[in-house]
Design goal:
Elements (H helix, E strand, L loop, with lengths): L1 H21 L1 E4 L1 H9 L5 E4 L3 H6 L6 E2 L7 H6 L7 E4 L4 H12 L5 E4 L2 H7 L18 H10 L2 E7 L4 H16 L3 E7 L4 H6 L7 E6 L2 E6 L5 H10 L1
Parallel strand pairs: 1-5, 2-3, 2-4, 4-5, 6-7
Antiparallel strand pairs: 6-8, 8-9
Length: about 240
């Protein structure tokens, strides 16, 4: 029994050492913010598109577009020996960036879990790089009007940079033509931040099906045309 106990704690020790050596930690918005404030020589990178970055950013983050062909080459220009903090919109691209950073030998990497969406939900401050009006285009009262005027409504939250959203767009357009009794609205999450927060949209794409102003179905990930057609037939 004593030998088993020693073996158990030895394994735990080795696992812990391995985790420390990785130099990577995923943190929620509050933890990420506190770590940023208490760390010296910080390198903070935003791996979203320039359009997203222009709309809002965290602190003085440097924009390195994850989709750029030379993204990895840009990462190599950063200092591997200084703490590096990384975020994106909701966590997908930053996760990919972390893999590349660790492969490149960065010693200390911190990722914002849930991306800038989680940061904003935590009511932490962001900065704007432009002087344009950033008021939401699509608001809660607009959605309420649509729901009250239509028996069946499909709401699809998307983003211009979201690859799964782009895959869904062609058949969403088809569904609108094939089912004229169903109102389909696609909402750019960057133009409806308050509404997205109200509806707790934390991932994109997100699709919601309403009947008679009542939410019947919801999926917080990519869908197929047949899945949405099943909803339509069901109700």
């Amino acid at each position: 029994m004593q030998k088993l106990t020693i073996l158990f704690f030895s394994i735990l020790f080795l696992i812990a050492c391995g985790q420390n050596k990785s130099g990577y930690l995923s943190m929620d918005a509050i933890q990420f913010n506190q770590k940023l404030e208490n760390t010296k020589n910080v390198q903070l990178i935003d791996v979203r598109t320039p359009e997203e970055y222009a709309n809002s950013k965290i602190g003085d983050a440097l924009n390195l577009n994850y989709y750029d062909a030379d993204f990895e080459a840009q990462l190599k220009k950063l200092d591997k020996d200084k703490p590096l903090f990384v975020y994106c919109k909701s966590g997908g691209r930053s996760s990919g960036a972390v893999s590349k950073l660790l492969d490149l030998g960065f010693r200390e990497v911190y990722e914002l879990e849930g991306g800038i969406m989680a940061w904003e939900r935590a009511k932490l401050q962001t900065k704007s790089n432009t002087k344009k009006n950033e008021k939401d285009v699509f608001k809660s009262n607009t959605l309420n009007e649509i729901l009250s005027e239509n028996q069946k409504v499909i709401v699809n939250f998307y983003a211009s940079w979201c690859i799964p959203c782009k895959r869904m767009k062609p058949f969403m357009d088809e569904l609108e033509k094939e089912h004229p009794n169903v109102k389909i609205i696609r909402i750019d999450i960057d133009q409806a931040k308050a509404l997205a927060t109200e509806l707790k949209v934390e991932n994109i794409p997100t699709v919601m099906f309403y009947e008679k102003n009542s939410l019947k179905e919801r999926k917080n990930s990519e869908m197929t045309k047949s899945e949405i057609e099943n909803w339509i037939r069901k109700y």
